[in-house]
Amino acid sequence: MAVQEFLSPTSLSEAQAAFDENAASSWLAGGTDLLVGIRLGARDPARVVDLKQIPELTAIEIDDASVRIGAAASAFDVLQNSAVPTLFPGLAEALDLIGSTQIQGRCSAGGNLCNASPAADSIPALIANAAQCRILGPDGERMLPVEDFVVGPNQNALAPGELLVELLLPRPSGVTSDAYLRLTPRTEMDIAVAGASVSITLDDSRVCTAARVAIGAVAPAALLVEAAGDALVGSQLDQVAIDAAVAAVRAAAKPISDKRGTAEYRTHVVGVLVSRAIARAQARITETRP
Amino acid sequence: MNKPLNKMAVQTTVNGESTAFLCSPGQVLSDVLRDELELIGTKIGCNTGDCGACSVLVNDRLVCSCLVLAAEVEGQTVQTIEGIAKGGELHPVQQKLLEHGGLQCGICTPGIVVAAKALLEHNPNPTEEQARYWLAGNLCRCTGYDKIIRAVLDAAKTLREEAA
């Protein structure tokens, strides 16, 4: 088999019609995973439906309450956006770690999410920032928290014919910031051994009023570790609170041992990354509000 | 017997010239550039987006042409290595790669030139670190990269002087 048809709808309704007709259809966003999968024989769609001519899928829109990133907007476009990297420096760090400049010219946060790799860099950052997935299906629209989107390695929550339209992130105020850190043996072009993202909010007396901690590459899917966030809330991010958050992520991590690292090593490292990510996000808030 | 594949007619702009070609729905851009348009300066290394030898610009965005379906460039602009030298005059990135000995076997060179030119249009005064990160997706097994990076930074200086 090979790809028999390429369709390029220009609206969501056209896209749905294009997909419904054929069970062996595949959505195409940036293609940096799909085309590799076809090349390696892991994917075999008869019909490819390109999403990049649909305005909603590539738009990046910001209003007072939220930031919406089209599911097929390229990482490069997000990184070049005048506001998104400032509002979400941690999400920008994560997108800037996916592949090369060439890959970033094509790949998307939505595609990274749908591909559902346990080691995906942008997923922990999306979870830390409480992103919601807007999903359109044959029966209408639904919203899903991003931490519920990946259901296992390379498996997502989309039913056949459903389409991830956009990611909706609450717009952070000036007292909220985020960070993403990962460990790789090489500095570039590598896959995370472990990854960690945090988003924290501080009040005027530097007390943490909200925190979300997410970890990647240490479980079948990136995890929201609510106990780690809870350990930080109410503290001034002192060592006791950070130690409790680190203990919580190490307890939540369920890594495998493979060529990138042993389970024991990954469990240790993910705690270190969380403590550093907390410090980095905290510094981002205090530096702008001395 | 396999069902014959539907050929698609694609209208695009390649190196500033309006260009039409026929492709299969699953054919990638790198194959069309080389096999249909005879633009064989674009090289194919890994075919999985890891090596950067097939780097081109699509709508001014640096991409691996092995990870773009040819049908995706309908109505878009494509820039390849063939469009970079003007007549017999090399682009400063090409000239400096020659002067610094930033190539040996040459397979990675078209991709390096396309990617480095894109870097200098994006950031005319990159640090060494920025240049190394930008070019991290262009693998070279001959030079050890040092001469490539020196050439790119030198080309950046030349281009800034020309613009001044």
Describe this protein's structure.
- The complex is a heterodimer of chains A (290) and B (164).
- A five-stranded antiparallel beta sheet of chain A has the order 4-5-10-6-7. A four-stranded antiparallel beta sheet of chain A has the order 11-12-13-14.
- The mean pLDDT of chain A is 96.
- With 290 residues, chain A is of the alpha+beta class.
- Chain A has two domains: 5-170, Uridine Diphospho-n-acetylenolpyruvylglucosamine Reductase, domain 3 (2-Layer Sandwich); 176-288, Enolase-like, domain 1.
- In chain A, β2 (25-28), α2 (34-39) and β3 form a beta-alpha-beta unit.
- Helix content of chain A is 35%, strand content 25%.
- Chain B has five helices and five strands; from the N terminus they run ββαβββαααα.
- With 164 residues, chain B is α+β, with helices and mostly antiparallel strands.
- Chain B has a five-stranded mixed beta sheet with strand order 2-1-5-3-4, sandwiched between helices.
- Chain B is globular.
- Chain B has two domains: 8-83, Beta-grasp domain (Ubiquitin-like (UB roll), Roll); 92-163, DNA polymerase, domain 1 (Orthogonal Bundle), CATH 1.10.150.
- Chain B has helices at 29-36, 92-100, 109-122, 128-134, 146-163, and strands at 8-14, 17-23, 55-58, 61-64, 77-79.
- In chain B, α2 crosses α5.
- Chain B is 34% helix and 15% strand.
- Classes of the chains: A alpha+beta (290), B alpha+beta (164).
